[in-house]
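Need tokens for this chain, all 354 residues.
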Amino acid sequence: MEELKIGLHIHSTYSDGNGSHTHIARSALKAGLDVIIITDHNVWVQDAESYLQKARRKLLVLSGEEVHDNTLSDGKNHLLIFGQDRELSPFGNDPQRLIDQVKRSGGLSFLAHPIEDKLEKFSEKEFSWKDWQVKGFTGIELWNYMSEFKTRSQTIPKALLHALIPHFMALSPLKETLTLWDNLLLSQANPIIAIGGVDAHALHKYLGPIRITLYPYEFLFRTVTTHILAENKLTGSLNEDKRMVYSAIAQGHAFVAYDLISPAKGFRFSVYNKNGQFWMGDKVQANGGLTFQIRLPRKAHARLIKDGKVIKEHLDREVLTHITSEPGIYRSEVYLEFLGKERGWIFSNPIYAV
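Here are the structure tokens for all 354 residues:
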């Protein structure tokens, strides 16, 4: 398998972002990404998909959409859509119908920033997901970097610190979102895939005549990413590479990483049984015994979680192994010290033992 690093939840000048597709792609290539999926609000930018290459580095640029009901003042129920074959914003006023239309168009649907806080001191609303009767969505945005800014920046001093020195801001996905994910995994009939996004806009602010850009694209692309285990390296065939990327996401062959604190490339969460080796997103037979393994690029604090509860953890090790024959939904979390605090580093999609 080939590991590819993806930047998700990105806005351009086609909606409320401040960068062109070209500028965004160049920033992503500089930041070391392999793929970006640009998801402007209620607009699908057709014919924008392409490659950008410099020397041996290649970036695949894909176009998705972030849809919500723009007739509502609160703007809730934002849905990230990848891999569709048509514009889907006309269905934004009915979340279930929208999810159904995504399926019909061959796409993937993710509840964007499902839990979010207000930032009242700066008149910033919260845009949490509200319609919990919906079924059939692909997954959730487990970690949204700019949504976390609202939670961590409730006072003016903290907001200034995080705006001017952003390395201090992020800690991990919200605890409430992690709990929500575990509950969805246990209650929904279909797997619920977790992704991580940055919600990039490259905010322009003015200090008198001086314009500064807060959280520019290149910086954000070095923070929260989604790593996938794909079949191959990018081939240069747009249709084949799109299929490969979306297939890996749909199967849950992916993990969310905060690459700013340390490169997460090389992380693996797998399980062995009598039939061989299986990866994140796979379903395996528990009878006959299972050997789970978390393998890290460096020593860190690793947790193995079953059905929402920590069942094993190691501090300052590169490998965690667990032998069991119990069915359940197993996932892993990894934490790392950075700037004086333990911060979330890696959050894997589950392995389903039945």
